User: Fold this.
Amino acid sequence: MKDIAHMRKALGKYDLTLFQLEILLAVELHEGDTITDIMGRGLLDGNAFDSIVTKALQRLAEGISGKPGRDLIKKQISPHNANARILFLTDKGHALLSEVKTELNIK
Assistant:
């Protein structure tokens, strides 16, 4: 529990939640995949509701309902499915994630 409390405190400096960190790490591992593909690989909590994942992803990307996003993730239309969006970390996302990983000693 101390480790989780330490992580939450450290992530607070970056205005990130543990779940948002999980999303960033999953996108880093599988850039160019959709969130559905990433979840299908078991890289995110399978019990998370789609709406929770969608809101967290929007917060990290373009924003929600008048609230600006963080511009850490970029979405592009999939070349295989015009209704799907493939995900990439932005330069800002790579830089922030690198800093967080160093602070939390994540390899």
